[in-house]
Amino acid sequence: MSLLINGGCLSIIFADDTLSNELSQLFSISKAVVVFRSSPDEKAQCVKFIQNMDPKAFTLAIGDGANDVNMIQSAHVGIGIMGKEGN
Predict the structure, then answer these.
(1) Per-residue pLDDT for the chain (87 aa), expressed as one digit of tens each?
(2) Phi and psi dihedrals of 30, rounded to 5?
(3) 3-class SS letters over the chain
């Protein structure tokens, strides 16, 4: 199962313990998590959330712009690709 999350939801979820716990359960059964339309801080926070939730989890972040740098640096493996916004 893959999980798609709109960035606007993340700040609401991370601010609430019950919702964070439910998101953690969804992450634990997902093979991949795709976060879109989110702020740079939310992207990095999502990677760190996964790492804190499961210390054995291995995170990979792929981005194509300057707004992805924080997320890429937070992941175990970060990949920056040439896109519309950056190279």
Answers:
(1) 778 888 778 888 989 999 999 999 998 888 888 888 888 899 999 999 999 988 998 899 999 888 899 999 999 999 999 866 655
(2) -100, 140
(3) CEEEEEHHHHHHHHCCHHHHHHHHHHHHCCCEEEEECCCHHHHHHHHHHHHHHCCCCCCEEEECCHHHHHHHHHCCEEEECCCCCCC
Backbone angle region of 60, left / alpha / beta, with phi > 0 → left and psi within -120 to 50 → alpha:
beta
Structure pTM?
0.81
Cβ contact 50:58 at 8 Å: no
Q: Domain coordinates of the chain in residue numbers?
A: 2-80
Please choose, from the candidates 7, 85, 4, the residue with its C-alpha nearest in 3D space to the C-alpha of residue 45: 7
